[in-house]
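User: Quick sanity check before I run a bigger batch. Here is a single chain. Can you write out its predicted 3D structure?
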Amino acid sequence: MPDAITQELPGRSGPPGAPARKAGHALRWTALAGSSVALAALLEWLGLPAARLFGPLLAGVVMTAAGARLRVAPAAFLVSQGLIGCMIARMLPSWFYGTVAGRWPVFAAGAASVIAASVALGWWLTRRRVLPGTTALWGLSPGAATAMIVMAEAYGGDAALVAFMQYLRVVVVAAVAAVVARVWGVGEHHAHLATGWFPPVAWLPLLGTLALAVLGPLAAHRLRIRAGAFLLPLFAGMYLGHQGWLRLELPPWLLMLAYAVIGWRIGFRFTRPLLAHAARALPRLLACTLALVGVCGALAALLVAATGIDPLSAYLAMSPGGADTVAIIAASSHVDVPFVMAMQMLRFMTVLLLGPPLARFLAGRARGPAALP
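Assistant: Done. Predicted structure follows.
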């Protein structure tokens, strides 16, 4: 596995044992890749949507918990996000903007309701001292995970537990969404698209797609646009595609590689020290996460009643966070993709702007004696 895509964590010693360490490093990545493919194939055989994401994710969790010190290179993760952005851009029709503009009260209310529910639940759990200090308030924020982890400790929260809650929420939300998608069925059209690893490829459009997936994240990094690695290729791909200037080409093997990188990135977060630190509080952490998912499920039911949209589209639209994982699940399910992604994008950008200041404001008024983990 090339170093540009994968990296081993710091801590390797000098030259004397370098060949053996390199062999061990390659062996670990080989085991990870093999187990990822096997788990993805098993989950796909069981009919689970987004199996090609969950296979690598589960393999990453197992390898990290077993002590393998691996990580995905940041550049590979950003390019993978760019590819997922291109995938969604290809799926969104030209009337996407008109749909959003014509139903903006629904999107605004949906995004605001998930943020309000997350903040209210986090505030209540903080007041009840379910977790130490303000940990619940930061941990239940639907997005902006890095900012929440950084600020948690300064406001009486446990930064490690906040990190675990953020990563756990991504996994739980994605797993529940995949199960809901399985219950409601996978559309035949999307199921057909998911088959066949090496179909004929239009190489010129593929090169253009790869250029967009690389240059978009690079521009986002230069301009310091948060989440731009996903958003810039998405919006640029939509514009270029609808103008007829670029046909997005994404063969299944390329998307599988992007899914694997994103899945590994999430799985590698569950390190031994983090798992050990969270072990005693795990029932409460899981209960908090499931409570948030349940509240968002109730909001999805209200959305179905108010708009008549199908239940699966409503649930994916209201899922709290993990826009890239929700996008992957939506791509393999029979849902209203424009509606789902419009709701996810609107809430995501709102959280990036308002989430940290709002949580900081509430945390300053919720400080008190910390509960024991």
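The chain has a mean pLDDT of 79.

User: Great, the batch can go ahead then.
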